[in-house]
């Protein structure tokens, strides 16, 4: 199997990919942008892609979600949650730094540090932290905000360690492939999907949330993203606890299929929050769903 991932060598994405079981026996091709990674998967140039999707400090990595919301369908089959710490890498001491670069999501996580220590530095964007480190090493910028291992990879000295505003920051990365059946349920899974609703129908979003709530499915994330049709036109990106194979999830998805303009299934896959407890389904048990299905089958067969 060959992966494409957000490179170059030295990114957090590369570090997270090394933690993905499916990558243990795969080759990995670094690519310069999230779009290129997902486009390579869509074109069949590689078997799988690995990209960041959410950060505990800044929320959604919008380019990833926007690429999953639109375009040819892709599905998520795995995730890795990686703690992230940032350094300021530069040949110059902090007092002499006038330009600094990094990926927008990284810059947002060191906002307070930059305001405090580099208030007059000009901030530049890069496609990844490791790309910023390489461009700083090449002399294009004075400094880069990047992982410690990216500074080491390009031979840049570290002028400051642990510059992130939140010492507990973590980023979630996803393993995406062209549409395929989901991995087997583990009992600790996430199902991701996008719903497109009829904006002009009052309560349309409540109807979506109700399809989960009445079946005891816990929503762990909801993110509205513009569809590009015009101001106020949004798709809703949802993460919820459970697996496509669960009766309750299947019923909820059929309900969404009936009431939404469109539903895009983005995958059921094992959670990597192995330390976090799995909230039990609210109210209804799996046995309740099995009993109701058997009861309906009896009614259809015998009328009683
Ligand atoms: O640029 C990198 O090193 C990446 O892996 C991307 C990315 C991100 O976009 O979230 C990953 C983790 C950090 O939050 C900062 C940047």
UniProtKB/TrEMBL annotation:
All copies of domain Prephenate dehydratase, residue ranges: 2-178
Domain ACT intervals: 193-270
InterPro entries recorded: ACT-like_dom_sf (IPR045865), ACT_dom (IPR002912), Chor_mutase/pphenate_deHydtase (IPR008242), Preph_deHydtase (IPR001086), Preph_deHydtase_CS (IPR018528)
Keywords on record: Amino-acid biosynthesis, Aromatic amino acid biosynthesis, Lyase, Phenylalanine biosynthesis
Pathway(s) it belongs to: Amino-acid biosynthesis; L-phenylalanine biosynthesis; phenylpyruvate from prephenate: step 1/1
Reactions this protein catalyses: prephenate + H(+) = 3-phenylpyruvate + CO2 + H2O
Residues annotated as site: Essential for prephenate dehydratase activity: 171
The keyword Glycoprotein is assigned to this record: no
Enzymatic class: lyase
Entry EC number(s): 4.2.1.51
Pfam families in UniProt: ACT, PDT
Molecular function as annotated in GO: prephenate dehydratase activity
NCBIfam families: PRK11898.1 (NF008865)
Name of the protein described by the UniProt record: Prephenate dehydratase
Naturally occurring in which organism (per UniProt): Glycomyces lechevalierae
